[in-house]
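Q: Given only this backbone (250 positions), what sequence would you predict?
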């Protein structure tokens, strides 16, 4: 497959670069929220270019969207739910999804939960939490939840989806373990054997919890991967081991 990009996900997808020749995988999108409009326009232009390439080469376009578009009132996190994005970033990704679907190019749109793994940027959620925990004080938004999926499991799921030739679908790709950030923080503290001060931030905070029901129907093998309730603990422990945090504190 053609891998477009050189960031976190593109790095971890390199072992698949000689597989699935019928696909273009766009792993070079806007990496974070709250970026200026020119960055959104850049990603939109790149999507247009990949649509043209997919048509020209007869390849399906794999687009990484976001589960952060979920969280509105009454939203169940299902792919067929009416989407009212709660963030500008989610709205931007939803617009790109619509453009791809209306373009006529074969495609696979994956709405990702929080993909966790080494070699990612430091501004992401878990690295930022670890820095705060080790500093002695961590800020937690009450009720905030995220679904975490280790990048190795993400790559395995994508490999199986493309191997099965799944196209022209919108799929959530997540673990099915949407957990309060407070519990993630507490698990990191237990593993690192530290007890920082917690600063709890009150107020309404959106939780982005994608349903994995459709993914399990389309790809039954997901049920054999050990995902689901409690998975976040294994994913976090693996991340801490891979990044050397456990070794440093042992």
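A: Predicted residues:
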């Amino acid at each position: 497959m053609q891998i477009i990009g050189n960031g976190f996900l593109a790095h971890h997808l390199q072992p698949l670069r000689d597989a699935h020749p019928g696909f273009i995988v766009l792993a070079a999108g806007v990496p974070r929220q709250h970026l200026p409009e020119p960055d959104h326009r850049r990603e939109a232009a790149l999507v247009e270019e990949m649509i043209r390439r997919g048509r020209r080469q007869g390849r399906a376009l794999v687009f990484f969207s976001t589960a952060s578009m979920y969280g509105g009132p009454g939203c169940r996190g299902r792919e067929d739910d009416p989407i009212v994005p709660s963030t500008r970033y989610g709205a931007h990704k939803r617009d790109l999804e619509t453009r791809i679907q209306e373009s006529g190019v074969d495609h696979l749109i994956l709405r990702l939960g929080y993909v966790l793994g080494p070699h990612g940027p430091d501004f992401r959620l878990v690295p930022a939490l670890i820095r705060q925990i080790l500093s002695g004080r961590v800020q937690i938004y009450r009720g905030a939840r995220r679904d975490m999926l280790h990048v190795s499991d993400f790559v395995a799921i994508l490999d199986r989806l493309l191997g099965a030739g799944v196209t022209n679908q919108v799929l959530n790709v997540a673990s099915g373990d949407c957990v309060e950030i407070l519990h993630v923080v507490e698990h990191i503290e237990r593993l690192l054997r530290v007890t920082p001060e917690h600063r709890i931030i009150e107020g309404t905070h959106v939780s982005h919890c994608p349903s994995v029901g459709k993914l399990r129907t389309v790809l039954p093998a997901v049920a054999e991967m050990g995902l689901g309730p409690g998975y976040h603990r294994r994913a976090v422990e693996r991340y801490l081991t891979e990044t050397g945090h456990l070794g440093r504190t042992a």
